[in-house]
Amino acid sequence: MSESTEMYLLTIYKLNQQHGTAGNTQLANWLGVSTASITEMVKKLAEKGLVERKGRQLRLLPEGRSIALKVIRKHRLAERLLTDHLKIPWDHAHEQSCRLEHILSDTVVDALEKFLGYPKTCPHGHPIPDKKGNVALTEAPRLSDFEEGSTVVIERVSEESAEVLRYLEDQKIFPGEEVRISKIAPFEGPLLIEIGGESLPLSREIASKVWAVKKA
Questions:
Q1: How many angstroms separate the CA atoms of 201 and 185, rounded?
Q2: What does the DSSP assignment read for 122-163?
Q3: What is the rounded distance in angstroms from the CA atom of residue 215 to the CA atom of residue 70?
Q4: How crowded is the C-beta side of 202, counted as CA atoms within 13 Å?
Q5: DSSP labels for 94-125?
Q6: CA atoms of 62 and 15, how far apart (whole Å)
Q7: SS3 label, residue 214
Q8: CATH code for position 210
Q9: Which domain holds residue 128?
Q10: Which residue, 40, 48, 55, 42, is CA-closest to 11?
Q11: Which residues, in sequence order, are bridge partners of residue 181?
Q12: What region, left, alpha or beta, does residue 197 occupy, with left being phi > 0 and alpha being psi -120 to 50 degrees?
């Protein structure tokens, strides 16, 4: 399977999971290619029985989903190794894992999972698929969806870009951290949150890239 094919399938999977939709324009923006290139590649993937189009939306067929989940498994286990054992910052670990996800064999990945102690999530809180392709998906609202005064626990953060990961790590916005939303500015203004004993203004854009659950 070519790296290009894996990237397309992976991106369609992530777009559907994070945004509930995956179309040509979204794919083009995420991958940084023209819509004409997207149209051509999607046609090839459909001919191989990996994706199907419903109207303007793309959906992975079982084989395409299986391939995407294998790539995700490699990526998230690689991130665990790089961050937990080599102490590589989130953004660099993410970029390196984007390369490793296409070259690690299943045998190496299974051994890596055992070495790491069978972690359930990546450093950013996303579930790691098992070797059979099973993945524990959970629904959680975004931080931007909560009301003022809410106290929540961060479940996971977006992996869309290295820049976002760098910012979140710098601000110590990690899965498992408790956050109180002390104020929400009107007119789509920022949120003022309390985390780790400090107050931090957080834009709506960044808050929408953090998923959390209400503190029990």
A1: 10
A2: -TTSPBPP-TTS--------BGGGSPTT-EEEEEEE--S-HH
A3: 33
A4: 29
A5: HHHHHHHTTT--HHHHHHHHHHTT--SB-TTS
A6: 17
A7: strand
A8: 2.30.30.90
A9: 70-137
A10: 42
A11: 193
A12: left
The amino acid sitting at 23 is G
Q: Residue 194: CB partners within 8 Å, gap ≥ 6?
A: 179, 180, 182, 200
User: Can you give the pTM of this predicted structure?
Assistant: 0.90
Do 129 and 148 fall within a single domain? Answer: no
Structure tokens at 114: 């055992």
Tally of domains within the chain: 3
Task: Find the CATH number of the domain harbouring 83.
Answer: 1.10.10.10
Express each pLDDT in 135-187 by its tens digit. 988 889 999 999 999 999 999 999 878 899 999 999 999 999 999 999 999 99
107 burial class (0-12, 13-18, 19+ CB within 10 angstroms)?
exposed
